[in-house]
Amino acid sequence: MSEGKQFSNVWNKYNSLYVFWFGTCDIGWRIKGTNKEIIENLFNVIKRIYDVGARNILILGAPPLYRIPYRKNYNQCKGISDGECIEVLKKEVLEFNNEIIKLSKIFFKKYSYMNLIYYSTVNIFEDIIKNCYEYGFKDCINSWGGNKKRNVSDFFWANSHISYPANKILAKNINELLNSLNK
Question: Which UniProt keywords apply (predicted)?
């Protein structure tokens, strides 16, 4: 697909970035598998792409599921109060992300000829939610919900995912992080 395009001849195993991000569905609606099993599977994939030359890996941690407006729909929250749901999901996200960090350190120690970067989506999401208006949103608690009468750009959440403007902020923040590593 990139043949003849601007970067078709310059991408290679040394300057390509491979990004992994666990989203709301991977954790919130998970039917089977423990956090440890899921993260071990991730690192099996990372090992395979490392073996064929990947040297720049970015792993985005699980987002703060407890902040998502539709959190009560998650399997872990069936039949419990919203307050209990929030606590269950906080624990789930913390354990999930800690497992990523733990296995990242082990992997990097074994395969140090690479860049392996962990990025906390919890931190940036929490900052945006706390400073909603400063980031240009009108609502960081509720979801746009597909209501065409409302402007999705006013919302941080678009259903169970972040909105397009929120993704732009996330991308800009990640880009700044990656650029800072080159200094």
Answer: Hydrolase
Domain ranges, ordered by start, for the chain: 12-119, 122-183
How confident is the model over 14-23, as a mean pLDDT?
85
In 3-state terms, the chain is what percent helix, strand and coil (to 5)?
50, 15, 35
Name which of 22, 34, 120, 132 is nearest 76 in CA terms. Answer: 34
pTM: predicted TM-score of the whole model, two decimal places: 0.87
For helices 82-110 and 35-51, the axis angle rounded to 10 degrees is 30
Q: Give CA–CA dist 158/154, Å, rounded.
A: 10
* pLDDT, mean over the chain: 87
Q: Which two tokens stand for residue 52?
A: 């064929």
Q: Which residue in this structure is represented by tokens 């913390």?
A: 94
Residues 6+ apart with CB under 8 A from 155: 137, 138, 139, 140, 142, 143, 144, 163
Of 115 and 27, more confident: 115
